[in-house]
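Field log, afternoon session.

UNIT: design team B
ACTIVITY: writing a sequence onto a fixed backbone
BACKBONE:
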C-alpha cells in the first residue's frame, strides 16, 4: 500500500530565498497531519506545492501512488480551506456548497441531496438559504468546510483557516474539524503556527523551522520528547540553561549548570557544551516537607495570575542566579506567594532535557 501523500526531498527556492528545504514525508490514508511552525517557515509554500499552485524546485510529490507534477490543481482530488474563506458573497450557503459539484458536472438530480448532507455534517441543516453575510464567522467557516469536502476529495488541505477567529470559537472549531475529519476519514494536511491547534487536532505533527523539518511525530511525542532546542522552545513554555556535560551515569548525564551538578536526559557527549531545557509545568513548587529528585531554594521574582494557574518567575542562586518560569496549578496546596518569598522548587531528572542543537 502506498501512502496517500508522499513527498521526497521537496524544495522551493524563490530567487535567493530557500522557502522549503528538502522536505520528505509519508502520510497514510485517513491520517490528520499538522505542519506547525512560525510565520515564514515555509508552511504555505509546501501546502501550495501539494495543491499544485506552485511547482517545486526540487523533489517529487506523489498522491495516491502517482506523481502529480503534470496534474493541474483543478484535476487533483483536493479540497482546500484557507484563512480567507473566499465564499462567494452573492451566493447562498447552498449554492456555495453546490459550486464544486456543478464545476465537476455532478448529476444535477443528486446535488440537493449531497449539499444537504454536507450542510448537516457541518451542523448547518436548513441554513442553505442564507448568504454569507447572514451567517456568523463560525457558520461561514462551516460553509467553507462543506464546500471543500462536498465533492469527496482524497485530500483536504487547510491553511490556517482558524487563525482569524477569536479564541473560544477557534477552540470549538478545532474540535469540529477533528470530528468531521474522523467522521469522513479524509486524509488531511493542516498548517498552523498555533501549537494548541496542532496538539488538539492531529494524528501527527510536523514541526518546521526555516524551511526544514525539525521533527515529525504524534502530538504527545512531539511535546514530551522534543527532538531539539527549537521544538522544545516552540511548544510549551520552556526554560533554557547553559550546561556542560561532565559524565554519563547509566541512562542519565551529569551536567554542570552554574555551580551545581545535575542529572539530565539526552544523547549528549561528555565534555560537550549543551542546552538544558526544563518545561515550566515540569517544575514544581514544593509544599513544606515535600521532596523531589532535584530541588533548590529559590526567590520569587514575579507572580502572574492567569486564572486557572499562576505563573511564577523565580531566581535560583544555586544555578548561577538563573531565572526560571514555572506554573502552579494548585495554589491551595501551599498558599500563594509574593515577590521576595523564599520557596523550594523541584523536578525529576527525566525532565531536564539536554540538547546539542
Ligand atoms: N512568491 C514568493 N516570492 C518570494 N518569496 C516568497 C514567496 N512566497 C513565499 N516566499 C518566502 O518564502 C518563505 C516561506 O513563506 P511561507 O511559505 O508563506 O511561510 P509560512 O506560510 O510558514 O508563513 C518566506 O521567507 C517568504 O517570504
Ligand atoms: Mg502561511
Amino acid at each position: 500500500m502506498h501512502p496517500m501523500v508522499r513527498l521526497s526531498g521537496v524544495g522551493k527556492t524563490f530567487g535567493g530565498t530557500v522557502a522549503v528545504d528538502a522536505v520528505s514525508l509519508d502520510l497514510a490514508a485517513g491520517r490528520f497531519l499538522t505542519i506547525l511552525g512560525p510565520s515564514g517557515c515555509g508552511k504555505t509554500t509546501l501546502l501550495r506545492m501539494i495543491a499544485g499552485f506552485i511547482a517545486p524546485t526540487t523533489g517529487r510529490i506523489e498522491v495516491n501512488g502517482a506523481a502529480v507534477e503534470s496534474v493541474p490543481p483543478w484535476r487533483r482530488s483536493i479540497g482546500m480551506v484557507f484563512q480567507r474563506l473566499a465564499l462567494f458573497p452573492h451566493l447562498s450557503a447552498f449554492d456555495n456548497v453546490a459550486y464544486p459539484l456543478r464545476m465537476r458536472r455532478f448529476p444535477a438530480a443528486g446535488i440537493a441531496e449531497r449539499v444537504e448532507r454536507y450542510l448537516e455534517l457541518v451542523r448547518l441543516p436548513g441554513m442553505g438559504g442564507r448568504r454569507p453575510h447572514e451567517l456568523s464567522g463560525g457558520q461561514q467557516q462551516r460553509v467553507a468546510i462543506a464546500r471543500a469536502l462536498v465533492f469527496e476529495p482524497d485530500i483536504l488541505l487547510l491553511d490556517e483557516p482558524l487563525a482569524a477567529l477569536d479564541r473560544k470559537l477557534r477552540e470549538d472549531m478545532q474540535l469540529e474539524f477533528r470530528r468531521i475529519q474522523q467522521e469522513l476519514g479524509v486524509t488531511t494536511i493542516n498548517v498552523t503556527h498555533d501549537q494548541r491547534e496542532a496538539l488538539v487536532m492531529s494524528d501527527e505533527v510536523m514541526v518546521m523551522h526555516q524551511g526544514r523539518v525539525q521533527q515529525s511525530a504524534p502530538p504527545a511525542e512531539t511535546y514530551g520528547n522534543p527532538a531539539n532546542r527549537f521544538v522544545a522552545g516552540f511548544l510549551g513554555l520552556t526554560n533554557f540553561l547553559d550546561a556542560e556535560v561532565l559524565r554519563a551515569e547509566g541512562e542519565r548525564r551529569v551536567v554542570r549548570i552554574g555551580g551545581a551538578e545535575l542529572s539530565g536526559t539526552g544523547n549528549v557527549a561528555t565534555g560537550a557544551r549543551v542546552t538544558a531545557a526544563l518545561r515550566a509545568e515540569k517544575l514544581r513548587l514544593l509544599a513544606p516537607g515535600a521532596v523531589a529528585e532535584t530541588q533548590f531554594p529559590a526567590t520569587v521574582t514575579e507572580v502572574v495570575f492567569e486564572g486557572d494557574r499562576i505563573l511564577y518567575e523565580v531566581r535560583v542562586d544555586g544555578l548561577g542566579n538563573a531565572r526560571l518560569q514555572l506554573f502552579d496549578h494548585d495554589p491551595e496546596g501551599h498558599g500563594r506567594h509574593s515577590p521576595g518569598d523564599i520557596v523550594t522548587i523541584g523536578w525529576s531528572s527525566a525532565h531536564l532535557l539536554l540538547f546539542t542543537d
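LOG NOTE: The mean pLDDT is 93.
NEXT ACTIVITY: expression trials, pending approval
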